[in-house]
Amino acid sequence: MQLHGIFKRFSQRLSIVLLLPLMLAPRRSLIHAAWIMLAVATVASACNGGGDSGPAEGVADRAAGTEWNVVEADRDVRWLPVLATQDLAVGVKRIAFSLDGLKLSEQPPTVRVSLFALDLDRETPRSVQYARFIAYDPSVGIAAHGHADSSVTDRALPVGRGVYVIPVRLESAGLWGLLVEMTSDEAEESVRLRFSVRERQAAPGVGERAPAVHSRTRSDVASLAELTSDPDPEPGLYAVSIAEALDQNRPLLLTFATPAFCHSRTCAPVLAAVKSVWREFSDEINGIHVEVFENPDNPTLLVESEAFVAWRLPSEPWVFVIDGAGVIRYAFEGAVTEEELRSAVEWVVQEAGG
């Protein structure tokens, strides 16, 4: 129990080390259901308070039998993991989940995740690793808005205080599971998530050519407010369209995000990270922000942008790092840190220069 702080620091370093090489290998949900659970949460065990039995014991034993078939979570569970990543397909993926029940006053628990290919082996995990926690910016909210399909969104906030992320390799289509073991000084709990993996993801994946579609630029509008809901936009991210950037044979840092209307509350921080990294590398790469909505200046009747639809993105935000040949080298769904983006861009820039 006293080691959870050490494990947390270790996991923060481990996730990014594992993620960057893996994402070189090949990789939707309704846009406004980005925080609905894709999997059924099933409780493996839950115990509050101290004790000698921790998350390090008997993963295989607890995973055996019919526990993966439970269809209701225990109402007494303290923290309930909720999948935030939705476009799950065969290949390498960065999975994110939040913890329902994690209070603002609580220190986020250390979380160990075991990955199971349930159709093949329910007892032996394919991988075991500690998840990295990315906190929400408490100042970031969501503006009240409506949509062309008549749905209305208020200022509802997403689950939890942030998201945990892990890199995984999903080797086959079918049913997979996560055994999520959560440990703090006050409590230990274990919860299972089941989710389906498809052969191919909806969004363009790593190793694929980036779709050369038109996206609106600052030359198409009278004001940047027509292009973005970002209250402090970076003009350089609206200088060229996606198609134009791909024709220039330069690396491209491309993000699809809606800072004011993002249900996950991660669009604004992600866009801030993109702006920072692009400014650092602007002499070597193009940068583009595509607003998820065509008319961000009319929040009462939002319509999804043509470029966003053309890229087949089921959620927001997304960030892509594309090389000079127009091939996607990194794809981040949901929360991503400035550190991760900088490392990805550095990798692509170095390859372009080498």
Notes on the protein architecture:
The chain is built from six helices and 15 strands. The protein is α+β, with helices and mostly antiparallel strands and 354 residues long. It folds into two domains: 4-197, no CATH class; 218-353, Glutaredoxin (3-Layer(aba) Sandwich). A five-stranded antiparallel β-sheet has the order 1-11-10-4-5. A four-stranded antiparallel β-sheet has the order 2-3-9-6. Strands 13-12-14-15 form a four-stranded mixed β-sheet. It is globular. It starts with a helix and ends with a helix. The model is unreliable at 1-65 (pLDDT under 50).
What portion of the residues fall into strands of 2 or more residues? 25-35%
Broad shape: globular
Number of strands: 15
Quote the average pLDDT: 81
The percent of residues in helical segments reads: 10-25%
Radius of gyration based on Cα positions: 20 Å
Distance from first to last alpha carbon: 47 Å
Main-sheet strand order equals: 1-11-10-4-5
Number of domains as seen in the coordinates: 2
Low-confidence blocks of residues? 1-65
Largest sheet: 5 strands, antiparallel
Q: Enumerate how many helices there are, as a single number.
A: 6
Give me the secondary-structure category. alpha+beta
N to C succession of SSEs: HEHEEEEEEEEEEHEHEHEEH
